Amino acid sequence: MPTLVRKGPHKLDRTHLRYADEQAPGGELHCFLLDGSASMLGSLAQAKGWLLDSFDRLARARAEVALIRFGGDRAQVLFGPAVPRWWNERWIEPIGGGGATPFPAGVAAASRLLDRAKQRRASQVRVLWLLTDGRTNDAAPRPAAADRVVVVNCEQGRIALGGSERLARAWHAESLRLDDIAQHV
Predict the structure, then answer these.
(1) CA 136, CA 70: separation in Å to the nearest integer?
(2) Beta strands at 174-177 and 148-153: parallel, antiparallel or unpaired
(3) What is the sign of the dihedral through the CA atoms of 23, 24, 26 and 31?
(4) What is the pLDDT of residues 103-119, one digit of tens each?
(5) What is the pLDDT of residues 22-62, one digit of tens each?
(6) DSSP string, 71-140
(7) Is the confidence at residue 151, as pLDDT, over 90?
(8) Which of 65, 134, 166, 176 has minimal CB crowding within 10 Å?
């Protein structure tokens, strides 16, 4: 409609064109699932820096986010789902790591959160970001309520085991390397 208003009685040309912003009608929810196990200690600071940047960027876009950490003997929802606020550094910076990798518990927590979000707002686009080095022998099914899954490979060191890539293939997910995306922070 804005294009036609701009055109008025004149012949249509490209200066009249107006574009609609293509946002999801129900908004977006970005659920971050952070591996906080002992094997992630070498990359946890970089992962938290990228998370902080992502929270700030998504806050400007008014998108909802959630953060779930799994490590030690449990998975815990640390934030959301909600639009992030400006004080994210205060609570993201002290997130620690260590212990075992309760991967199935983390995925189960993400599945419950995404299922509730889908029930609450079916038109919302739900994106699951899994930040892990993939060093676990446990498996879990891809959360069904996730519209899109991105596995962020946090593996460091000279010997790559490729667990994150295997998981991304099994879940039909996108695969990104933390080293590559964190450079743009």
Answers:
(1) 12
(2) parallel
(3) negative
(4) 999 999 999 999 999 99
(5) 556 779 999 999 999 998 888 999 999 999 999 999 999 99
(6) ETTEEEEEEEEE---TTHHHHHTT----S---HHHHHHHHHHHHHHHHHH-TTSEEEEEEEE----S---
(7) yes
(8) 166
